[in-house]
Specification:
4 copies of one chain form a homotetramer. Chain A is an alpha/beta fold. Chain A folds into 2 domains: 139 residues, NAD(P)-binding Rossmann-like Domain (Rossmann fold, 3-Layer(aba) Sandwich); 165 residues, Dihydrodipicolinate Reductase, domain 2 (2-Layer Sandwich). Chain A contains 9 helices and 14 strands. Chain A is globular and about 60 Å long. In chain A, 62% of the residues are buried.
């Protein structure tokens, strides 16, 4: 059976490795190359399969129909161009082409698949969303579209991520003995680099002067994001979760849960799992949305593959564990 | 040197054990008894010292000048009465005598020491605060007293606690394999049993129709609470942290930090460590307070001992690791 | 496509749950029932599929071609009989039918698949091996068969297991706060209940008065077993690993590694991964074998499914992640 | 009250930081300087006290009566010389002056305090033992001295250490996401750099051609070492633990336990905790010793301070948590 050759640039980071593993198990794709400059020549094992890294400049870009770029922010745009010049289509996991990231605003559609699906098939470049924006925007989109959010109200997001969200870099603050038994906020003061991406898309989805106040935290777990989102609303229905069930009806990768989701519900799965609860004991009507994803799956490699499946006309679910 | 005899009822739970350990190392106190009904007759070792549990009904209550009651909520009030009837003074770690907990409203002062210090010395019973309320109320008290909080605004609290906060009970959901690599919200919908305690004290401290919206989470760590608190304000100063520095000037157990605190800053210490940051990128002026405590120390046993030191006329810091 | 109906008795424990998850994803099997007496009526979710537990006595045993019994040791034999009486064949995950376990010695072949494969196809009952014996016996079998072990020498095994090895039981010593940041030996003194199983099979495989000295430890991880085995030998070859490579040539679920394996090499995979190293700096020639498995996969549910595949004439690898 | 000034060279590593913390709380010592070349000028907080790092070359060596050198192996000898030349006495935490480490064999006594106590008081340099040797040598010394070990027999040691044992270095293999939920052996093949130290001291203590076969493992915990030691013996008494109780009678930092110790028994304490058990079900009489220490306390900083207390004529227990 013919398999479609795809390549991964930046394959030694956590998202890149996850992507290589997914491709190795994908029924219709095969890995044409995997680049990692510092580890060039080294082998990386994924279960019973294996890949040998090449330097990015030695990667046979033209051999791939799709190139995934999982390079650091800022370093990606150039390689997206290189891949495009060989005719490959690109799914870019960096922030370089995402909304709200300034000069790189392009025609690349934003690959938040469930909300932007119709723009993907014909794209040359897909800007794969950030992990936090995926968890948060899919959670609040129905509210924004339906116009329930109190105009001018701040959407409050307290989120926590496993350490793979910080990437595979040998930083002393990410050593086991520094992270275990700890929990800390970072980018405190609404300064996280994902904020502009979320603000831009919130506006596009119908936000009415709704700012996002976002405080991320570092969890002593390897993978997973849990976002706790409180939204002041001017209206809602008796069972507000029906809005989400209706909005995401039939979506294979979105689960509306009766109970608040936890990381273990989503880890190693390409899903967003959500719960919606009305706040008791407050005068201002408020909804509390808990949203959980695996930052490396739906938050990175899984969603990238979901977008690649669409680009290639394959089943959107091909090769993706639900 | 004469040491003051004190007793602990409910000494096999996490707070009770911590308390026994603190008493064993305290320069002026000695442990008269430690009760644990199910473990009666068993020995419990704390470093190089040891205690043998007795049943509560066999505890020589009259031998203690102070009795600490670390019993389950609801079960404490009766034993507080028993201890009082022997003439002992009581520091009660349960919620039975705390503000907002309905029928048990009494004359017992609320032992949030730094805010209520002057009421403690003459008390017969001190209602030791809950762990979450300690972290949160000490964080927002300066704001409330100073009148900075926007009238009618909701104070949003997303907090996370280590598993000892759930007590030493053999619940399957607290097994290692269920908690490790997970993170979950609980009491979602503003339904936590500590809420009433926080609402009542918030009002007392000067809240102007300010509701608290509180979402706690369970962390895969043994101990520590981190609360991320966002407060819409109608005014503040250029460096808002000066308000806290001023308010808590000279307090040995409150630290105002330049950087957001993390659990490892406070674990095994009887302190609250706080940071205050202005939110960028939002129209509504908002302060973000990060508050960290050790739930078993400042959140339970440490604060109980701090209150006992006051009751006994000892240095408030005696036997407490800062 | 017709799928073969299979049932699981004792489906709420860790091994039972793992088995239900594997069956749900198996291309040729379907779950006829899953029993869990205490959770009867409750639903259990495995990714995107779900099962509703029934009481064992309500399980439609006759609807299943294979019944897996994942019941506590001692409680299994009766239900194996019940299942057999309806004509189902049984893979028993308890120790009730294993070698060395006294009165229950039967004709049930021992399902250490790679060593006993020819005895499985015609069996009515397969005694699925224990998790530690799987890791250890597959590691030392080539040595025993080849006659390399020093006669009379003790085979020293220090092994460590994740907490799911202790089962899903609400024991206080298995709470997160008791296990995290800890490491402890148990059954110290060569008293572990798996010892007889290992001694019996060691003898059968060619041991010459070779006792096993086995010290297990509890790891603060959820799953995985690592066994460090030192074997005094009277002979070996220049590259001793060739013996294992030869002995297990073509085995899909046994990996002979150049570097010592670690848990992350095997977790969620149905493999044993082994390394063999000659000890330097000792006078007595000694081999050090490191053996790693996932206790819930190759150590329980995965191997059980491997045996069921053989019983049903399916590919041995069907539905098993390598 | 006059306090003795002491200095720490290499104060940013885990052992160095632990030492600074101990000194800060020591009743008779004060910190004259703490060096850390890369962090020069940075402050490091230990609870409520703080230190500012200087470069080693800027450290006022002559201001200290004792200098602790917690520098990397190989880099220490030079600085020990520098410190000596100012008249300071030195406790060296590196391996540079330890037995078995070749050319640096000197007159520095080996600071395994309980066994070598009489050699410490007059020393200029004390070679502080490695963490593994401390746990293992104190465990087997009574056996060796008493002549119980089978002549020529191999002493088998399987030990596991928390990640601080690998030092505070930003190695990718020590990142949280690489260590959590994992367990791995290292230096497999009896090649660990601590082996020579253990072999040399074993011989000195009375070993009769007894080799040590040592396999260390990396635990997903921050601190603590547990060593599982099996020793073939030619004789022992009915209750073999009496040998240890007798040998270590009155030692404040050695505990002989009835139950096998675990890491939580010793973490943050300057003790070795041991159990001794006869192996059942083996023909060769064998004792199993489980030995637990905190690698940063009795295994490094605590023992260094214990030796410094002796050098200074202070109580050996001063400033050390038992």
């Amino acid at each position: 059976m013919h398999k479609v050759p795809v390549g991964v640039l930046g394959a030694s980071g956590y998202a890149g490795r996850e992507l290589c593993g997914l491709i190795a198990r994908h029924p219709k794709l095969e890995l044409a190359f995997a680049s990692a400059n510092e580890q060039r020549g080294q082998r990386y094992r994924m279960g019973s399969s294996e890949v040998t890294y090449v330097a990015a400049e030695d990667a046979p870009l033209s051999s791939a129909e799709i190139v995934f770029t999982a390079l650091p922010h800022g370093a990606s745009a150039k390689w997206v161009g290189n891949a495009r010049s060989t005719g490959a289509r690109v799914v870019d996991l960096s922030s370089d082409f995402r909304p709200g990231v300034g000069e790189s605003a392009t025609n690349a559609p934003y690959g938040l698949t469930e909300l932007m699906r119709e723009k993907i098939p014909g794209a040359d470049i897909v800007a794969n969303p950030g992990c936090y924006p995926t968890a948060i925007l899919l959670a609040i989109a129905p509210l924004l579209k339906e116009g329930w959010v109190m105009p001018g109200a701040t959407i409050n997001v307290s989120a926590a991520s496993g350490v793979t969200g910080a990437g595979y870099s040998a930083r002393p603050d990410l050593l086991f003995a520094e992270v275990a038994e700890d929990f800390r906020a970072y980018a405190v003061g609404n300064e996280h680099r994902h904020l502009a991406e979320m603000q831009a898309v919130t506006k596009e989805l119908g936000g009415r002067n709704n700012d996002i106040l976002f405080t991320p935290h570092l969890l002593p777990v390897s993978r997973g994001i849990l976002a706790t989102i409180t939204v002041p609303v001017e209206q809602h229905t008796e069972d507000p979760s029906l809005l989400w069930r209706d909005c995401y009806n039939g979506e294979p990768f979105i689960e509306i849960a009766d109970q608040p989701p936890s990381l273990r519900d989503v880890v190693r799965r390409n899903v967003v799992r959500l719960s919606v609860t009305k706040a008791a004991n407050v005068r201002q009507p408020t909804l509390i949305i808990i949203s959980a994803i695996d930052n490396l799956m739906k938050g990175a490699a899984g969603q990238a593959l979901q977008n690649a499946n669409i680009l290639l006309g394959l089943s959107e679910q091909a090769g993706l564990p639900a």
